[in-house]
Amino acid sequence: MKLRARTMAPGERIMNMKGVILFLPLLLCFLTSFIPSVYGSERLYNICTNTTAYTSNSAFGTNLNTLLSALSNATTATGFYNSTAGNSSSDRVYGLFLCRGDVSPQACRQCVANASVDLVKLCPTQREAIVWYDDCLLRYSNQSVFSNQVVVSMSNTQDIGTSSLTQFKQVVDKTLGDIANQAARNQSGRKFATKDANFSGNQTVYTLAQCTADLSISACNSCLADAISRLPTCCEGKEGGRILKSSCNVRYEIYPFYYLNATAPAPAPGIPPPPAPVNSPGKGGGVSSQLLIAIIVPVGVSVLVFIVGFCFIRRKGKKEYEAVRESSVVNAMSEVQSLQYSLASIQAATNNFSDDNKVGEGGFGDVYKGILPNGQELAVKRLSRNSGQGAVEFKNEVVLVAKLQHRNLVRLLGFCLEGEEKILVYEFVPNKSLDYFLFDPEKQEKLDWSRRFKIIGGIARGILYLHQDSQLKIIHRDLKTSNVLLDGDMNAKISDFGMARIFGVDQTHGNTSRVVGTYGYMSPEYAMHGQFSMKSDVYSFGVLVLEIISGKMNSNFYESGYAEDLLSYAWKLWRDETPLDLLDPSLEGSYSKNEVLRCIHIALLCVQEDPEDRPSMANVIVTLNSFSINLPVPEQPAFFVGSRTRSQVPKGLETNQPTNTSVPWSVNETSITELHPR
Q: Which of 305, 524, 571, 611 has a Cα at 20 to 30 A from 631?
């Protein structure tokens, strides 16, 4: 059978071309209709707080429905909106949403609408809930102030290659530090910023930071600084990671996950302009159907491939992420049981507290190295028997201190309470304490500048966690080099919480008639008047930084003949515009001038006499990681209450000399927190 070629008449060709032209918009509409349902619809995490439940027909339920409807239908150019519903304080509902700074108002509204529907299904009876999506977050509560800061970390399961890991971490830290400040100061109404940077060859890392618009510049900076400080804990060496908080979020990836102009959404795939008329020889003009098909079909296929690929990447990305909620409430009794070690197991691990296993001594007891049968190494703190603390109080303290989980704090693993024995079990930190290396001329060289700068950042993140981000609000009160331990990778871990005080949520200051700590690190208002606050720890941090830079101990500095104390010497050099003379000679030729100058500047601000003039630890972390932020000019630092003569110690105040007086360094010298009810 022969196939006969048929030539279409001009009218048929026009009809076919019209059909193809009409089909293209329908195809595109059909395909792009999938985009809103895919883009931004991936639920990242949700939390339903276990507060008093409500019923659907209650006043609270009615008000919640009204609020969610208002949020779903709200139109805002900034991507942020908050509202309330209900007149009675007992049934009033507060809510808000925040959309990612680069999504369109339409996409924002769609995400919020989806979130409103989902949240009711996910949390059907809870009076407080929050849900995060790629494009938005939505939360509501029966309280006007969302004081319960919940933190969720998400890490990509894929690792960065070891060859570019160091450079990758440096670029991520610097870039996030830069955009945190940009986001806080964004004048567009959206506290949002993005940035990309190369880290190895042509490889690029993409970063994002955003706050809710109700935060002040300092509050946004503080929130983002905390979020950035948490990334190493969850996402060290990972290709991507993000921290989701109820008031801010940060993220980094090795692929673009936001619109690259970071100011407005990329235009949706559209129909390309029609081609210019092409005259066919002998046909009297017009466009050939073959040419139209050659143009239209690839466009349609490209759009289809784009959407299918987009869906695949989104689903794949979701599977590759692991989310962890960092704040949770658990039963205290089960915690106590899970943390308890038997005395027999501790004795076996330490060879019955053999002197050969002793690695430190202090005012609160001796420290022993222990090894469990499974090979795990422990630091066992055997508290002195005259501590005067009861068993119930001891258990309560252990449970609370065990909640302090941060990579820059020595971790409490458990305890033992049998007979008169009160024992604390900590992770073992192998590289002793910072003073062991810092003040020994033969060991100083092991602390090159990159390690010292890393240690400074680690101490800052640990203090910030104590002050702001743990379930407890803790003032350490005894920060010093012997209480900073170093792990196998020379990461700093703050230890010895024996002097620590717990603050209430809204408490900012405390007073005591019993001043404890170590002179040379104490702020003047604490040493002289017993007044302490978070700024007391900031002062101690400033002293620590100057010691790390100079390799000299503040309390013994008068012996050098340069000045009465290290702080005064650093200030004189700064005033005379020769601050680099403070630098430890062992660092000569191996340091970053900008980093050293930045650290000296920050340290001098931390030791200002007026606590109000000292920065918060959140601001310290932001300014450590970003050189684009202008710092205030430091004034002359506070006077130094030394330990050279007893006449310098205020009469009637108790002193606490460094707890490692029996040895020139301390190992795992940690003790239980001195708790005070909020």
A: 524
Tokens at 659, concatenated: 């707890």
- The pLDDT tens digits for 477-502 are 889 998 899 998 899 999 877 666 76
Q: Name which CATH class applies to 38-141.
A: alpha beta
Sequence letter at residue 525: E
Options 1.10.510.10, 3.40.50.2000, 3.30.420.40, 2.40.100.10; CATH of 434-648 = 1.10.510.10
| Tokens matching residue 109 | 């509204």
| 3 state DSSP class of 665 | coil
Q: Which of 91, 134, 178, 478 is catalytic?
A: 478
Find the farthest-apart pair of alpha carbons in the chain and give their distance in angstroms, rounded: 119
φ/ψ bin of 483: left (φ > 0), alpha (ψ from -120 to 50), beta (otherwise): alpha
Degrees, nearest 5: CA angle 495-498-501: 105
Residues in the chain: 678
pLDDT higher than 70, residue 621: yes
Q: What is the dihedral of CA 84, 88, 91, 97, to 10 degrees?
A: 10
Q: Are 157 and 238 in contact (CB under 8 A)?
A: yes
Would the pTM count as exceeding 0.85? no
Q: Is 145 a residue whose pLDDT tops 80?
A: no
Give 657 or 195, the one with higher predicted confidence: 195
How many angstroms separate the CA atoms of 468 and 224, rounded?
12
**Residue 543 pLDDT exceeds 80:** yes
Domain ranges in the chain with CATH number 3.30.200.20: 332-427
211/228 Cα distance (integer angstroms): 13
DSSP per-residue codes, 561-592? SS-SSHHHHHHHHHHTT-GGGGS-GGGTTSS-
What's the CATH number for 332-427? 3.30.200.20
* Token output for 97: 């949403």
Provide φ and ψ at 238, rounded to 5°: -90, 155
Strand partners, 130: 47, 139
Question: How far apart, in Å, are the Cα atoms of 671 and each of 101, 431, 454?
Answer: 45, 18, 25
CA distance linking residue 170 with residue 164, whole number of Å: 10
Q: If you ran DSSP here, which 8-state letter would residue 15 be given?
A: H
Known catalytic membership, residue 469: no
Residues of the chain with CATH 3.30.430.20: 38-141, 151-258+321-325
CATH topology of domain 151-258+321-325: Killer Toxin P4; Chain A (3.30.430)
Residue 107, classed as helix, strand or coil, is helix
Residues in CB range of 647: below 8 A, 6 or more apart = none
At 597, is the secondary structure helix, strand, or coil? helix
Instruction: Name the nearest CA neighbour of 492 among 436, 520, 452, 441.
Output: 452
Cα-based angle 134, 140, 145 (whole degrees, multiple of 5): 115
How far CA 462 is from CA of 456, 477, 479, 538, 608, in Å, comes to: 10, 14, 11, 12, 21
Report DSSP letters for 77-105, one per residue: SSSEEEEEE-SSTTT-EEEEEEE-TTS-H
For residue range 70-96, list pLDDT tens digits in order: 999 988 888 999 999 988 877 899 999
Q: Which runs of consecutive H residues, i.e. helices, occur in 403-447?
A: 434-438
Query: Per DSSP, what are the bridge partners of residue 486?
Result: 492
Burial class (CB in 10 A: 0-12, 13-18, 19+), 409: buried
H/E/C letters for each residue in 126-144?
Answer: CCCEEEEECCEEEEEECCC
Give the residue from 572, 573, 567 showing the smallest Cα distance to 553. Answer: 567
Cα atoms found within 13 Å of the Cα of residue 567, Cβ hemisphere only: 29
